[in-house]
User: Fold this.
Amino acid sequence: MLIARTIAELRAAVAKLRSEKKCIGLVPTMGALHEGHLSLVRAAKSHCSAVVVTIFVNPTQFGPNEDFAKYPRTFDADCALLEKEAVDVVFAPEPTEIYPPGASTVVEVAGISDRLDGQSRPGHFVGVATVVAKLFNIVQPNHAFFGQKDAAQVAVLRGMVRDLHFNLEMIVCPTVREPDGLAMSSRNRYLSPEHRQQALVLSRALRRVQSEVAAGVVDAAPLIDAGLAVLAKEPEIRVDYFSIVDPDTLENVADVSAGALVAVAAVVGPARLIDNLLIAPR
Ligand code: AMP
Assistant:
């Protein structure tokens, strides 16, 4: 497994893979890898003949009062996991490699970027879209793999790929959960046992909505009320949003019969956690 630190090293490694007629799969991550990330790597291995994983804690997607400085960095353990998955190349640049002095171009998928997490984290999705556009240009993959766990990110990036004509296919993989339902996240490392218990309420609220839908409820308002009622059972968490939206535009929908995304974000102790559920069209 080659570890590239610079764009030049990465490009040379990818050029060699291309000369061997390899199809390139890209898995962008911020490291602190868990089974959710590894599920993307495995999907990439099964679709593509070569896999590039990026590990880059992207400073521009963190707000000034967010956790950039304390975000978990576990590079050696991450590389050991990726080596076991037979990843071809890890790209782990320094921030100045990606944002050299004077870099001022950003990518904004207007509208979508201001909804859900974009509303509570101003500038977050401009940071995400900008870094992913850079990674797409640097690696030029055939396929790029993302997790459904970050559903709003998926909507923003799908919009970017469409609008900027990126010549690649995005593949979205299902959310990987702990046995008790908690969606895996690098930020789960911040949780004390007590907070971890409180965090279970997010997936419980989504499951309640799912069972209401299965029972025939299609209007968004009672579904939101049902989810919020479950969240209210953990009064120590602070709910950021609990919304039912169109999965592509992230705009609120009045009913779920054409399919919908139920998305939740809440601050649980020291961590801001997100989770979601896709409702299939009737
Ligand atoms: P991150 O390192 O948090 O930026 O995540 C990198 C990629 O892994 C993103 O595409 C995430 O959506 C995906 N991911 C994170 N957690 C999970 C999970 N529990 N299940 C599936 N994919 C995930």
